[in-house]
Amino acid sequence: MVEATEDLDRICNTLDKLTLDALSLMEEEIQLKLIMENSMCGGEGHLAKARYIMGQSNVSFLQLPTENSTEFSAVTKVFTNEEDKLYGEKSFELRVVKKDEDETVHDPLKWFGYLVPQNLNYAQNMFRQALQWAIEALNIQTQLRETVRKIEQLKQVKANIVLK
Description:
GO molecular function: unfolded protein binding
InterPro entries: Vma22/CCDC115
Structural class: mainly alpha
Strand order of the largest sheet: 1-2
Shape: elongated
Number of strands: 2
Organism: Aromia moschata
CATH architecture: Orthogonal Bundle
Protein name: Vacuolar ATPase assembly protein VMA22
Number of domains: 1
């Protein structure tokens, strides 16, 4: 009976710790999403300023590549770290893709001309930063799911000990 009480105390202490971890992960995720939202809004503001400076027709969807345009690939991609899993958790990261010699790198700002307003550069940087925040929020969300899964498992173990 004493052993069951000690096990129950250990499980309860672990549940408390995991619950606090889950709450701090939730807070961190919310903060990152707010920062990401601010970055996106700032990027949209700079994009609007560039559109105002250059004119509506010079900064529009008409400058974006279409199905008939030459092929291009992304400069950065999201990768999953399968080999670096910690306790079964996946993690994601943004990496710059190395280009082959025959591949050309297309700077999206060139779609709008060669002399673009500085606001277009600012918008690009803010959208890139928002992407970084999104990847970081995704990693925290993955950690949160794993923590919740551990909490559920410990609740089941606790219920089994209490029923005995």
